[in-house]
Amino acid sequence: MGQRDYDDMGLKVGLEIHQQLDTKKLFCDCPSELVDDFDMEITRELRPTASEMGEIDAAALLEAQKGMRFRYQALESSSCLVEMDEEPPEGPDEEALDIALKMALMLNSDIVDEIQFMRKIVIDGSNTTGFQRTSLIALNGEVEIDGKKITIPSICLEEDAARNIGKEEKEKVYRLDRLGIPLIEMATGPDMTTPQEAKEVAQMLGGLLRATRQVKRGLGTIREDLNVSIEKGARVEMKGVQDLSMLPEYVENEIDRQLRLIEIAEKLKGRKAQVDKEVHDVTHIFEETSSGIIKGSLNSGKRVYALRLKGFHGTLRGDDGKALLGPEMADYAKKTGVKGIFHSDELPKFGITQEEVDSIAEELELGKKDAFALVAAKEDTANEALGKVAERAEMAFEGVPEETRRAEIDGSSTFLRPLSGEARMYPETDIPPIQVDVERLKELKDDLPEKPSERIKRFQKEYGINRQQSEQLFKKGYDILFEDIVKEHGNPSTVANTFLHIYPELEREDYELENVSDKHLFQIFEKLEAGEFAKEGISDILKELTTGKNIEEAMESAGLEKVDDQDVRDAVTKVLDDREDFVEERGISALGPLMGVIMKELRGKADGEKVSKILKEELQKRIN
Q1: Whether pLDDT at 227 is above 90
Q2: Does position 80 have pLDDT exceeding 80, yes or no?
Q3: Residue 350 Cα distances to 94, 159, 195, 206, 290, angstroms
Q4: Where in the chain is the domain with CATH 3.30.1360.30?
């Protein structure tokens, strides 16, 4: 793909960043820590309520139509009656409120005079109450990236949702340990005009949050939502981006998706396509089917139904095999409880034969440019599922629908729900408004952390690393952890090398570095400082730590027992004896190749500089 002209396509990107704070929970005294166990369970069913204006939010209504039941698991030490919605909330936590106000000050925002918590309707089960408590802290902030001002229209303080543990057909399971952890939410304006710029803004905001030293670190503690639109497209929200480095990929993939949908809309209009909402029972065509999926459905009492899509041939899946409207229709259908749909652009497949496809086409009186969707289900479910397919098909005439999508780990996205509106907010009556004291703001302003640009310069001066290393530590989110480790155990160049070179190498080799905790890293550099292994062994120790071992087990598995100078000299002597002819032929120039041989044996057990010094001494003896 050539270089895209993002200005020409009218690309606009906005960000919402949700960062967990390292305090107690927002509305009780419970610790904000995740747990691996539970000692109680409760079940709930949720329904939508009207907003102050008497309206019901479309996204909430869609969730209610699923008819889900929710089971909540809790551990007494990490959750209380507040999380179970059996007791009114307390607070909010003063420390969390101070952090939010600090962020507002750092972003030059207009802080509100009075903080009023609101209830935001959320009935996907992630809140026992059926709503999320959120409050506006400040408006009209800004951050500067390469001389360009990015607006921050709102900064909010809110509670995190319960943790999704699993799902069955009509039941979701959540754990209440995460529910109530304080979150700062910062929303930017649609000011980013390239995918890379979106990443840089996210890095800057993440750096400001880390500078407070009061935010949680690790997978899932910070989440980004993306808002993406292009000319002739629509605003689409992608929720739950966890890997900041993949932000440009998500933006690029959404651009591709919107361009395809715009092209499909033009094609459908040119064909004068139509959506026939009549559902046809075509079970008889599959009486002798060899499709295991269809046969299993029929054996369980289900039937097969089809929907005619006039003029849709080639728009569900392209001739190149690229998925088009088909998966989007399937996402809508799945909201009714079916596992998926079949469509004519992908058939024959899944054991469905060409003969069966032709029989359906004949029964539905399809032309060459027509298509069909197929579902195996009970009659009521099938009518509902194919009704959703028809609904998504009709949206295709307009191009890109406004919707909320889930960010998948491969950089793609799937439909979640219609874009939420303002009809899901109403005041929280259990928490009184909080007046923002001028003296409190003055004290916080006098205690603001240093700016990222100042930190980058200071790292170079104080720790002797170059500008590129300093900037990369900041952009990759390791700056605060780097400094904390160096202050305790020194060795800044090795710590920087670990984050900027060893970590990327291990990630390329698919090691799960999320299993390496901050505590592990401090232990590594504590033992390195104590001389228990050489810096060359860091990579091997990290590999072992990703498998769940503790630091001692990791060092033992990596074979990093410490060797003294005599052990090094003995290893050098053995290598020189084994390669006597090579030493005689190459002389001092044998140093480089022999160093590689020796370090392969002593890697992590002895410092490379020491090995090089002893090898040079022994080599000189033999040459002279």
Answers
A1: yes
A2: yes
A3: 58, 45, 38, 46, 9
A4: 272-397
User: What is the CATH number assigned to the segment(s) 272-397?
Assistant: 3.30.1360.30
What percent of the residues of the chain are helix, what percent strand, and what percent coil, each to the nearest 5?
45, 20, 35
Within 10 Å of residue 104's Cβ, how many Cβ atoms?
A: 25
Mean pLDDT for 533-537 is: 83
Note the pLDDT of residue 1: 47
Mean pLDDT of the 70-93 span = 93
| φ, ψ for residue 16, nearest 5 deg | -125, 120
Instruction: Provide the token pair at 396.
Output: 């295709």
Read off the tokens for 147.
Answer: 């001389």
DSSP secondary structure letters along 420-464: P-STTEEE-SSS--EE--HHHHHHHHTTPPPPHHHHHHHHHHHH-
Pair 142, 194: CB distance under 8 Å: no
Please state the separation of Cα 80 from the chain's center in Å.
28
Given its phi and psi angles, is residue 130 left (phi above 0), alpha (psi -120 to 50 degrees) or beta? left
Q: What is the dihedral of CA 336, 84, 26, 139, to 10 degrees?
A: 40
CA dist 317 → 134, 210, 327, 387, 390 (Å) = 42, 44, 9, 20, 17
> What's the mean pLDDT in 136-161?
96
How many whole angstroms separate alpha carbon 134 and alpha carbon 112?
14
Which residues of the chain form CATH 1.10.10?
565-623
Q: What is the mean pLDDT of residues 452-478?
A: 94
pLDDT tier for residue 220 given thresholds of 50, 70 and 90: confident
Which pLDDT score is estimated for 168?
78
Mean pLDDT of the chain: 90
- The residues facing 135 across adjacent strands are 117, 157
Phi first, then psi, for residue 156 (nearest 5°) are -125, 155
- DSSP label at 588? G
371 CA to centre of own chain: 36
pLDDT band of residue 574 (cuts 50, 70, 90) is: confident
Residue 564 falls in which region: left (phi positive, over 0), alpha (psi -120 to 50) or beta? beta
Q: What tokens were used for 434? A: 């909080």
- Say which range, 66-80, 224-238, 321-335, 352-366, has the weakest mean pLDDT: 66-80
pLDDT at 125: 87
* DSSP states of 353-400: -HHHHHHHHHHTT--TT-EEEEEEE-HHHHHHHHHHHHHHHHHGGGSS
CATH of domain 565-623: 1.10.10
The span from the CA of 240 to the CA of 177, in Å, is 19
